[in-house]
Amino acid sequence: MKPHKQLFYAYSALYRPYFNQLNAQLAPFNLTSSQWAILHFILLEGAHTISDVSIYHNVERPTITKMVQRLTELDYVEAQPGEDKRTRFIRLSENGQAVCEQVQERLSAYQSYLLEEIPEADQLLVADVLRKISARININEDGLHE
Question: What angle is formed at CA 75 by the lines to CA 71 and CA 77, rounded to 5 degrees?
Answer without folding.
Answer: 60
